[in-house]
Amino acid sequence: MKVISPFGPKIAKLKFSSKLIKIINLEVDKIVSKKKLIKKFDYSDKLVGQVKQELQLPRAFIKKNLEKIIYNDVKKYINKSLGKKINNIKIKNFWVVRQFNNEYNPIHYHDGHVSGVGYLKVPKFIKTNLLQIFLIFQLVLNPRF
Known about the structure:
- The protein is an alpha+beta fold and 145 residues long.
- A hairpin with a 6-residue loop joins strand 1 (2-4) and strand 2.
- It has three helices and six strands, in the order E-E-H-H-E-H-E-E-E.
- The two termini are 20 Å apart.
């Protein structure tokens, strides 16, 4: 994990394993393959941009596949950026935005203390490994750590 501060808040840059990215993508593919699951996990009423599909990942999936990794990375981020050790972390939400041509998601804020973004699949014209993810954790103003 690399922590930088190019414009104010500390930002962490890290990569998930290719295996984890594949697991997340398979879960999303499973959800979008069934209309019933799309409806169940639809999170699009929370959208700020012009994007048709935003899907919340199931809590059981998060607990099994992501929780431990996210907890460890957030703890490292807080320690590196604030010099504090924390024990209590709560994942409020974890969702995937499926964005296609002519869709956009403007700059916006999330509640909570730490927020992140990751890229699971990118168009082929963007020269990067499709199975790499970069998460950016950004500390929100007035942290309570």
